Amino acid sequence: MSASKQMSDAHTPHPRTAGDTERLDVAVGVLTLLADRTRLALLKELGNGDADVTTLTDACGAARPSVSQHLAKLRLAGLVATRKDGRRVVYSLRHGHLRRLVDEALNVADHQLSALPPHD
Description:
Layout: H1 3-11, H2 18-34, H3 37-46, E1 51-52, H4 53-60, H5 64-76, E2 80-85, E3 88-93, H6 96-115
Antiparallel strand pairs: 1-3, 2-3
Helix pairs in contact: 3-4, 3-6
């Protein structure tokens, strides 16, 4: 194949299948859920292991009702799972991929912060 043919192929848009569209829509939904400070803090804490609402409230510094509402959104989205431990509800991440995604988002933040000039 010639170099000019390779270049033209590189700029030709690939047809998108319905699966690609759905996949992008789901990814946007996940990233939208992560785009909240409290939910990101909750997921970061759950990346360290299972926790109940009291532990998560202490870790993220938000009010308990707010934490419960955010956890409900994450549970309904299928990002966290719950189990009963006596009277307590214990939350956990449903996928290791989510932990890596949160870690990578925080790594990007670290890089951006380290690139900023020091402020006086």
